[in-house]
Amino acid sequence: MHPLSAQQMLAVWERGLGRIPLERALALLEAACPEQDHDTLAAMSLGQRDSCLLRLREWVFGPHFVAGSICRGCGQQLELTLHVDHLHPDTDTVPAQVPISVGNYHLLLRPLNSLDLIACLKLDPPEMARAMFSRCLISATSDDASIPASKVPDEIVRNAMEDVIQADPQADLEIIVTCQACHSTMRESFDIISFFWSEIDAWARRILREVHVLALAYGWKEADVLSLSQVRRQFYLEMVSA
Ligand SMILES: [Zn+2]
User: Could you give the count of Cα atoms lying within 13 Å of 230 in the half-sphere of its Cβ?
Assistant: First the structure.
């Protein structure tokens, strides 16, 4: 994986417009990891994928994340600054296989990946859980006899999928938020895809305006403006508006 240039970021942003978050995540990784094909990246566990996105975001915008929330205790708007080190779970080791035993059922599953989400996108929630379970199931036995995924009861499917998600903690990251006004403490999920994408979207719209201003003023092409460092671009913008 390598950092993205301004041209590459803008190309990913354009490609991701009107796409769902999952596709945006894969578009970002494909641009940052040209040595790996789409299916290899899509087969990474969701936690491994999000860990890569977190690192890419750090390379692009730095190690600090400013997130907004609303206190569920008093309704106060909250702003918190997080360091990237606080957005990694205690362990980022994702097991290739997750063994689960409930009663007489012994299951072996693998963590969820983007291909599973793509395959199950159009299903209703009850069907989705069962379809994801079937995709992730490596083996299942009941009373020492091998059984197909369809013979595993719904309740065990639900518990198994919760265990599979917990085995890949970066995919289901939570942060603790404390309100300074009423001292309420809340758990909030942190979604790196939507966070990173909203930053890319704001950056892309700003940089296109900057291209417009500098192209008009100096007759430069888009590529000329994008190849400038942020410092030099800012310097020229200040001279144009002086
Ligand atoms: Zn509060």
Answer: 8
Statement: the pTM of the whole predicted model exceeds 0.85? yes
CA of 189 to the centre of ligand 1 (A): 18
Q: What is the DSSP letter of 221?
A: -
Residue 70 near residue 78, CB atoms below 8 Å: yes
Provide the pLDDT confidence category of residue 88 given band limits of 50, 70 and 90: confident
Q: State in Å: Cα 186 to ligand 1 middle.
A: 10
User: What is the 190 CA–ligand 1 centroid distance (Å)?
Assistant: 19
CA of 41 to the centre of ligand 1 (A): 40
Please state, in angstroms and rounded to a whole number, the distance separating the CA atoms of residues 64 and 225: 26
Write down how long the chain is.
Answer: 242
58 CA distance to ligand 1 middle (Å): 29
CB 159, CB 102: distance < 8 Å: yes
